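Batch manifest, entry 17 of 40.
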Amino acid sequence: MRRTLIILFLLAVPALGAQGAPDLATAEVVDLTHPYDDKMIYWPTSPSAFQLTELSKGKTPGGWFYSANSFCTPEHGGTHLDAPVHFGEGRRTADQIPVRQLIAPAVVIDVSRQSAESPDYRLTAADVQAWEQRNGRIPAGAIVLLRTGWSARWPDRKRYLGDDKPGDASNLHFPSYGEESAVLLVKERKVGALGVDTASIDYGASKDFIVHQTAAAGEVPGLENLMDLDRLPETGAWIIALPMKIAGGSGGPVRVVALLSR
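Output type: structure tokens
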């Protein structure tokens, strides 16, 4: 039965399923996640950052080694997931997002050239349509990953965000999705998630966060602060993006990996 379901799923996504899902026994695994440490970048208005506190480290009275820590972090920092409820009242919280929605074929759209020319670049519907002319229609349920090249600036806060004034998010500059592409992807293509290698699925200078609002209305989570998207092809990879299952959470840290057929 499970094998039948997998075959039916692949038939439902012909543009990406032609190469088939990677074989888990032989697939190349690419980690798209920044480590959580004291260099972690948070939104400028975040009241706190990641903290790791050592609770125990060393030999116990019984003679064995033991290490344990506590950590504290806002939900939205570093490589993390935005649950739909983050910008949509009554929408799904982090623990309510179906796991199936977070394990899916990847669509990688590269706008690194345009982003190098303008830090305020926003993905257009024409960009999406150009991708589809090369690769076929983006299937429902796919996880779209927008490659801007911005992860190469990590962890330089000023270069990555466009500004490094603590507590001030009024002068940020980095590329991301635009409203028209978000509407196309969420409402018409019905994708499963939107990911990007910048700090937000809205571009830095946004004042209305319309992409977040559009995604939330469609129950589409966001994946922000990804890395190494240049290692992925336009099609053929599969994404596993599993966040901390925070009950009632508006998001949380997420480990995102890509699986590539060898």
